Amino acid sequence: MTAIALKLTDVNKSFGAAHIIRGVNLEIRKGERHAIIGPNGAGKSTLFNLISGRFGLSSGTIELHGKPINGLPAYEINRLGLSRSFQVTNLFHRMTVIENLRCALLWSMGYRYSFWHLVPRQKRLNEEAERLLEKIRLTARRDVPASLLSYAEQRALEIGATIAGGADVILLDEPTAGMSATETEQAVELIREVTEDKTLVMVEHDMSVVFGLADRVSVLVYGQILATDTPEGIRNNRAVQEAYLGTTEAA
Amino acid sequence: MKQQFVNNAASSVPRVRFGSWGGYLPWIIAIIVVAVLPLILKSSHSVSMLSQMGIAIVFALSYNMLLGQGGMLSFGHAVYFGLGGFFAIHALNMVGDGRLSIPLELIPLVGALGGLLFAIPFGWVSTKRSGTSFAMISLGLGELVAASSLMFTGFFGGEGGISGNRVTDITLLPYSYGPAIEVYYLIAAWAVISAALMYLLTQTPLGRMANAVRDNPERAEFVGYNPRLVRFFQFSLAGLFAGVAGGLYAISYELLTAENLGAVASGTVLLATFIGGVGYFFGPILGAMLITYLQTTLSTFSEAWILYFGLIFVFIVMFAPQGLAGIIMLHRPAWKAGLMSRLLPSYALAVIPVLLFLGGVVALIEMGYHFRTNYDPSEPMGLFGMKVVVTQVMPWIVAVAVTLVGAVLCRLSFRRINAAWADVDAILAGEKR
Amino acid sequence: MLELITFSIINGVLYGMLLFMLSSGLTLIFSMMGVLNFAHASFYMLGAYFAYQISTFIGFWPALFLAPLGVAVLGALVERYGLRHVHKHGHVAELLFTFGLVYVIEELVHMIWGRMPVDYRIPDALNFTLFTLFNTSFPAYRGFMLLVALVMFASIYLILRKTRIGMIVQASLSYPEMVGALGHNVPRVFMGVFAFGTGLAGLAGVIAGNYFITEPGMAWAMGPIVFVVVVFGGLGSLPGALIGSLIIGIVQTVSVAMPYSLADALRAFGVELTREAALADLWFLELSRVAPILPYLLLVLMLIFRPRGLMGTRES
Predict the structure, then answer these.
(1) pLDDT at res. C130
(2) Which pairs from C269-274 meet CB under 8 Å and 24+ separation?
(3) Where are the domains of chain A?
(4) Å from C190 to nearest chain B CA?
(5) Exposure of C253 by Cβ count < 10 A (0-12 exposed, 13-18 middle, 19+ buried)?
(6) Rounded Cα gap, residues B20 and B211, in angstroms
(7) What are the E-state strand segments in B195-298?
């Protein structure tokens, strides 16, 4: 049995009267690529926000490598090795691409709130940033402010900023949403590459991406996990077909 | 033009090329200018104005650590300037009494300590919030301290303030610092050092994360930083440098009053910084110099200087939110591409309309002030080298006419400028791809 | 003592109502447009000056209507030709714009009416004693101010509850994005709201300018207090603005009348302090002298412990 990276036990979340997440139990194995799918409004993004500390839980526990993380502020969770991207691009928009990457690296490289190191002189930091830049294939756009990048480029930078800190559990929220077919292909390639040896949890709508990347898939419907299985298993799961796949294909 | 300003908001972090002389060049030029200026502008008025500029520059740069770099709009930054000043003047007096032995050159450090001492608790309270709430807390704290200063007369000296004497006979260098010119060089040295330190701070992890938190506090959390702590450290350091400026003020004026930490002082530094431009490191320097010039020079021959100042500010907020520095930096791509020649003719065409319009407005304002504030409004007043009697109708008609004609011509000539810019932008975009 | 407290509270309520005339407009503008109008008290000052000027020509009663109207028109112009252009640069730019406006308006007032207070007086018709209670007389003008404030409050309430415009305004309070989507001309609604809010401030200036003093410093003196009120009561909440106004009004008026210090309070518990004690400045500070800072102290405490304010729904 492989180790568990992320474990959700009886997780509930309500906003006022709306009960969005209704008792989710989920185990993400260390090193696997896990996709969460489900119809719109099923609570996928909410689930991500709960795991990453953006929202607080109503009840239940979330453990990262066996340590409870619910109730911690987002930055503490990040420091414990969990990083996430956003569905809507969420960058430091007035800063350049390379600055975005540097900022994403600072904490993990131990600089904390230092006001006595000069960033341009930190050789290891700058090399690491340049290496990342190359990895996400934005070298040509190094000094362009993030707000002026194309959509696909912003998504790539989003992924770069997410993996920069060296977190071993990566949450990607719809990394290919709104991309063309070629862009999606490149993004999938990039994701495959940068999440090598890491645990990946992703929300995704594009089924070809899901079935191409994921080792296991969970289906979230109305705030509950309907099934967790291999892509093949999910494809053949009667309940899932009825609840979800059938409707998408019809649409 | 407007679109230009918006686009230019993007590149806000100045880049340094350490190791090459290019990065140091502006600093070397600045040091030479600072050293040579009083040799050119010798009058006592100029020297005192230059000293005042030095103080204002340090203060405005420290303010921009909040507004420009950290995205914190403060209405109470003078608190740390003033408290630093009061600490410094008390230290001066203690040195004078022989109770303390600090060389005069290091008195600004006492100011820094005073600023920091109060910035830490006040910053801890106010950086809990950001945005409008932060602005309101800063306003509340500012008013709180300003009102308290009239209560605790022991420390603040009540209405009369606390005075001191900078000639303490304890110095590092063989100067007495009695003469204004010696004080100028002391202030200049501190201004250059403080500016350099504040510049270097923008290059540190804290400085970078301050920008990051300004742009997107939530994302900053997801790269491991607590935005509140980033704001807090940035705030404390800004308080420290405001304290340095306050210490320099104490040395220069030898008098601190409650006004120095009040709402007007806080407002002035906000206006100066914003007019100069918050997006660029050198912006506040321009703003501080301009406002000091207006304060010291314009105020001697126009009562309306605050009005001009307010109008400039409103104009900048409306049409050039990146400030004077933004207007200058806007031209950098065109300059680098050698395209200035396409812009300059349209600018030249606009000179006369702009002068006409401004002349008309200034004439109306000055005549208005003369009419209202002189005991005998019919006494002729000097205006652009002419003698004008404001109780007659004719000057008013002429002034209104000049303003209107200027306004119409401005509209026309600005169309030319926009066309020239569209042209330049097209060429620049064409070259990129 | 009873006399002191009674009159302090009456005056506090009166001052609170005056504050509410300002804070209600500020709240409306903020809720609708997201703009914290820093220059709100400047429009209040303009109201007083307009009323002074108009009353020198045609008397107080026409001025009571014309001056707020004039202020409202000016507010509409400011919104149309100033604020609207700044809108796209965000709320901080809008706040800065109104902040600059404070300077411009103050200087224009200097230019037009001079730096000295102007002779704006209570009309003779209202210059008598309404009643006398415990040997202290209550001027009729205070009663009139209270009346105007109440009438204004009632009209706002009726407008908000009973008219279509009021519905739109209320909808905007809760769902700012929806109103535009429903096809209302948002810029024109904004202009109207800004004019209305500044007009209310102008009305407050008309009735307060002659009761206090009409001078160029009155905007700076009033502005921060109004901010305290709306933040204290909760940004964007009209009931909050009302409660905040009354609390701040009463706290300030009552504390001014209280010549007691911490040392007095300690004495009641048998602790005797002398002037030589450490921090004597603090112990012997009388409440009446602390009065000016109390609103700011309340503001800061509120923002730390309950950033939404008393009745607020939004954080900032």
Answers:
(1) 74
(2) none
(3) 4-250
(4) 18
(5) buried
(6) 25
(7) 255-256
Name the 3-class secondary structure at B237: helix
Tell whether the model's pLDDT for residue A28 goes beyond 50: yes
Cα–Cα distance, C17 to C14 (Å, whole number) = 5
State which H helix or E strand residue B6 sits in: helix B2-8
Q: Do B211 and A108 touch (CB under 8 A)?
A: no
CATH 1.10.3470 domain extents, chain B:
16-323
Q: Please give the residue of chain B at the shortest CA–CA distance from A111.
A: B205
Residues of chain C below pLDDT 70 = 1, 172-185, 275-280, 313-316
CB < 8 Å to C228, chain B = 140
Please say whether the structural domain A4-250 has been given the CATH code 2.40.110.10: no
Nearest CB among A92, A118, A121 relative to B219 is that of: A92
The pLDDT score that the predictor gives to residue C261 is 76
Let me know: does B283 contact B326? Beta carbons within 8 Å: yes
Least confident span in A13-27, A76-90, C132-146, C264-278: C264-278
Decide: C7 and C137 in contact? Cβ < 8 Å: no
B318 contacts C97? CB cut-off 8 A? yes
Q: pLDDT for B285-308, tens place per residue?
A: 999 999 999 888 877 777 788 888
Residues of chain A whose beta carbon is less than 8 angstroms from a beta carbon of chain B are 52-54, 73-75, 78-79, 83-84, 86, 90-96, 99, 102-104, 106-108, 111-121, 143, 145, 147-148, 161-162, 164-165
Is A228's pLDDT higher than 50? yes
Cross-chain residue pair B140–C303, CB shorter than 8 Å:
yes
User: Within the 234-253 window of chain C, which residues sit less than 8 Å (CB to CB) from chain B?
Assistant: 235
Nearest chain B residue to C103 by CA: give it.
B310
Chain B residues with CB under 8 Å of A147 CB are 10
The whole-angstrom separation of Cα B157 and Cα C305 is 33
Q: Which of B175, B206, B203, B169 is nearest to B189 (CA)?
A: B175
Q: Is C90 on the interface with B (CB under 8 A)?
A: no
Q: Neighbouring chains of B at 3+ CB pairs within 8 Å?
A: A, C
Q: Is B331 helix (H, G, I), strand (E, B) or coil?
A: coil
Residue C73 carries which side chain, given as an amino acid letter?
V
Residue B203 C-alpha from the chain's centroid: 21
* Cβ contact, residue pair B152, C281, below 8 Å: yes
Residues with pLDDT less than 70, chain B: 1-22, 431-433
Q: Is the pLDDT of residue A251 over 50?
A: no
Q: Residue A90: pLDDT above 60?
A: yes
Is there a contact between A103 and B212 if contact means CB atoms under 8 Å apart?
yes
3-state helix, strand, coil in chain A (%, to 5): 40, 25, 35
* pLDDT over 70 at A244, yes or no: no
Instruction: Please tell me if residue B238 touches chain A, with a CB cutoff of 8 Å.
Output: no
Closest CA to C304 of A229, B123, B17, A32: B123
pLDDT in tens, A160-203: 999 998 899 999 999 988 888 999 999 999 999 999 889 999 99
Q: Contact at 8 Å (CB) between B303 and B373?
A: yes
pLDDT at B9: 37
| B280-to-B65, B330, C86 alpha-carbon distances in Å | 11, 12, 21
Q: How far is C303 from chain B (nearest CA, A)?
A: 7
CATH 1.20.1070 applies to domain B16-323: no
Q: Across all residues in chain B, what is the average pLDDT? A: 89
- Considering only CB atoms, B318 lies closest to which of C86, C111, C228, namely C86
Span B109-132, pLDDT tens digits? 999 999 999 999 999 989 988 888
Contacts of B135 in chain C (CB under 8 A): 36, 95
Minimum CA–CA partner of B229 in chain A: A113
